[in-house]
Amino acid sequence: MEGLPFTPPAGADEGGHLGPPPAAFALLAADGVLVGWSREAEALLGYPASQVLGRRAADLLVAPHADRGRSEEQRPDQLLRLGGARSAVVDVRHRSGHTVRVAVTLRPLTPASDGDSTGRVPSAVLMATELEGLRWWETRQAMLQGLVTQSPVALTIYGPGARLLWANASSARELGGDLTASLGRSMTELFPGDVLTTQHLAPPEDFVRQILETGEPVIDVHFRGRAPADPRRERVWSSSYFRLLDGRGEPVGVCEQSIDVTDHYRAQQRLALLAEAGARIGATLDPSGTAAELAGIAVPQYADAVLVDVAAEVLEGEEPKPLTAWDLVRVADSDGEPSRVGERVAYAAGSSQAESLAGGRATADAVVAPTRLYVPLIVRGTPLGLVTFVRGEDSEPFDDGDRAVAEELASRTAVCIDNARRYRRERTAAFMLQRSLLPRSLPELSAVEAASRYLPADSHLGAGGDWFDVIPLSGARVGLVVGDVVGHGLGAAATMGRLRAMVRTLAELDLAPDELLARLNDQVGKDASDQNVKGSEGSGAVGATCVYGIYDPASRTSTWSAAGHLPPAVVQPHGPVSFLRLPPGPPLGVGRLPYEAAEVALAAGSLVVLFTDGLVEARGQGIDVGLGRLAAVLGEQRGSSSELLCAQIVADLVSDHVRDDATLLVVRTRALDARQVAAWELPSDPALVARARSMATEQLGRWGLDDLAFTTELVVSELVTNAIRHASGPIGLRLIRDRSLICEVSDSQHTSPHARYAGNDEEGGRGLFMVAQLTEHWGTRYMPTGKTIWAEQALPVP
Question: Cα(456)–Cα(464) distance, rounded to whole angstroms?
């Protein structure tokens, strides 16, 4: 049977990625006989026209299926009798034997005048499409429709020149809803803002042209700007771009796919802000510096301005007290107005600031520009102060996320300010302790003219352990000492105080410098052992260095010994600047090697400069450089007084930022005039005691000290008698007229004398007891050749 000529209706797509699946067409007579068969029908079911024309369409069905939306089963001829267009899903037998499920639509035709060779007239056209392909096409159509009308992703098409050609519903809403008014406008005109992605800092129009030319897509470009529909709120979009081609493969535009990532971007920014705050806030160990660090981090990425107010006692290092009057001190102000840093700030009761401090929680002003968020600085439940975050008219009000960030920033700042307060309190206590342990003033002595400087380090380590001292000794001599305890803080200051006290105690025993350092070293070692046994953390100081010397103005000699310390500088009159060559000795507390002493003659007017390494150390330079600079100053200023020389050395050697404590002791030696000293050597003969008394009395007469003659005779008589009785060899007698009258008797014995109470039946034993009662001070000092017993009397007041 020959079929009638048939052409598929217009609009049927034979291909295309998004087009509908191919549709098969057949013509039916009124009795359901097939009278027309298209090539698409043959491709769908495998039957050529010669095998199906003249057959009933129902013969091809495997089993009837319900019409969409109907419950009864119907065949094509039954659908014809119903009239009008009808659709159904049916299973059709393929020529190869398998079943093909198809969607069919039957549309009636206007009766034609002519039929086929049998005389049958086409009454309907049957359209059939494989059901799976149809549903896939419908899904894609639904997807496209959703992208256009329902998708939250903004889709926009830009033509050449990056001008708007089309936008879906989401993009149209961001454009303000009136798409017609936006067509033809450029990207920059529609969404003014900044490109945040670092690899795409060029204007958006430039990389749109590049995409049109190269076809290479651009992925995940971040823009920050304001949408026309909501110009008050700044937003961030993540946008990707790809080229669109027409049916001939020619570029027609660029599609932009944008997602609002404002919340995600802000969350990242907040996390980054908190990370930066953790790294930067608290680096200064100073409340004002910490407040400035907070302001520097928060402005401008979080707020337009930051004000920080702290309680006055916190700034002084005191314990925070409950705030009642809300009287604070401004420590940071970044609002651009004249700075109020350092001024008192009072908040009235009932104000937002007072409510925040009283309630211990963040509060905000009404949502008006500028908006302010008040966050208390709280540590252990006690407020230390208040932070005010300010946003201006062009910034968005603070939301809940911003409030959480502000509270975290304030919490970290409060802990750092409290740490700074604690550090300041400890540092102040350490400095006060150190200052109290150092000499408040140097004694006026006939032996030397002395001046000193102590310069604490400006680092966060706190007070160090440097010390110095000028110690009056018997025989008008003087002890000079400078030391440096390793470490900083209260422990170092306490250790320094103990060492200085021990040095004074040992010096007053008239010990030689090497013996004094040996005993001091033993004591430091015992202290360290006691701390280890008790399991304590120690004093913060491990070991110490020290140099100690004794100068005798009568003999003009000095004796020195060092324990790991830099040697003193010496400038003899008309001589070069030199540093004493002392036998090396270990630092105190780190060794048990013996200490040795060196004797150096010092002419009257010689300069002796003792110092710690902090004076001559400089960043990036060897210590030799500092010693050279010190020598240069001493060479140029040798004629200056000790006080002026101290000032000049500090000015030339000490920088504005001292990394370690620096201590300086400058002394200029003096000598006793020959007329102030009278010395005799006596044989060990009891008969010469009277002669010794006579010589002493005559010398007092020459000095005009007749008022002291009686007491002096008794002292000389007792000391010389004891020396003759208990020693052998010659006996030395020396009188020194200095700031007091000093009587000294020397012998060759090392036996230590001591005063005691003699019994009623004892004929002797009262000599030293009488000397102690008649004089202000007395004592014994030892020398390699023996010992000297001395006694001092105050001179009469003129």
Answer: 7
* pTM exceeds 0.90: no
C-alpha–C-alpha distance, residues 455 and 475, integer Å: 33
Mention every residue, 6+ apart, whose C-beta is less than 8 A from residue 445.
470, 472, 476, 478, 739
| Cα angle value 720/725/726 (rounded, 5°) | 100
Contacting residues for 718 by C-beta, under 8 A, at least 6 apart: 767, 768, 770, 771
d(CA 451, CA 641): 9
Here the tokens at position 20 are 């509908």
pLDDT at 198 over 60: no
Q: Which of 575, 576, 516 is nearest to 546 (CA)?
A: 516
Report the candidate in 497, 468, 501, 484 with the shortest Cα–Cα distance to residue 665: 468
What is the rounded average pLDDT for all residues in the chain?
82
Residue 336: its pLDDT value, please?
58
Q: Let me know: does 570 contact 608? Beta carbons within 8 Å.
A: yes
Q: Which residues pair with 225 in a beta bridge?
A: 193, 235
- Asked if 373 contacts 389 with a C-beta cutoff of 8 angstroms, the reply is yes
Q: What is the pLDDT of residues 519-546, one digit of tens each?
A: 999 888 777 666 654 544 444 445 799 9
- Residues making up the chain, counted from first to last: 798
Q: What is the pLDDT of residues 331-344, one digit of tens each?
A: 888 875 556 787 88
- Separation between Cα atoms, residue 421 and residue 426, nearest integer Å: 9
- Environment class of 663 (CB within 10 Å of its CB; exposed 0-12, middle 13-18, buried 19+): buried
